[in-house]
Write a structure and sequence with these properties.
- By secondary structure, the protein is mainly alpha-helical.
- It is built from 3 helices and no strands.
- α1 packs parallel to α3.
- The protein is elongated and about 45 Å long.
- It starts with a helix and ends in a 6-residue tail after the last helix.
């Protein structure tokens, strides 16, 4: 039963972390920015590193509300990744994005 809970937690974590940026990239791709999907190779690993790094550091420093911190960090990193993709669309020319 514990392994099923762990699998469910990891699946929900990855869906919440990577879902918005993937949806934003697909939306940009449909709007005529075909390079938006290429940025996923950079943004998704960066999101994972930032989120897991923050969670590990919080655990090492002995934070008392670790589950709350995990949820907040995951949602904030997810929103930041989608925002970075939209900012790159505004700053880069269409041929570079």
């Amino acid at each position: 039963m514990r392994i099923l809970q762990l699998i469910l937690f990891v699946a929900v974590f990855l869906a919440v972390l990577c879902g918005p940026v993937v949806l934003a990239a697909r939306k940009l791709n449909r709007r005529g920015y075909p390079g938006a999907l290429r940025w996923l190779r950079v943004i998704v690993p960066a999101q994972l590193i930032v989120s897991l790094g923050t969670i590990v550091l919080a655990d090492e420093y002995g934070q008392h509300a670790l589950p709350t911190l995990i949820v907040i960090t995951t949602i904030a990193t997810s929103a930041l990744g989608a925002a970075v993709l939209w900012v790159m669309r505004a700053l880069c020319p269409a041929r570079l994005l």
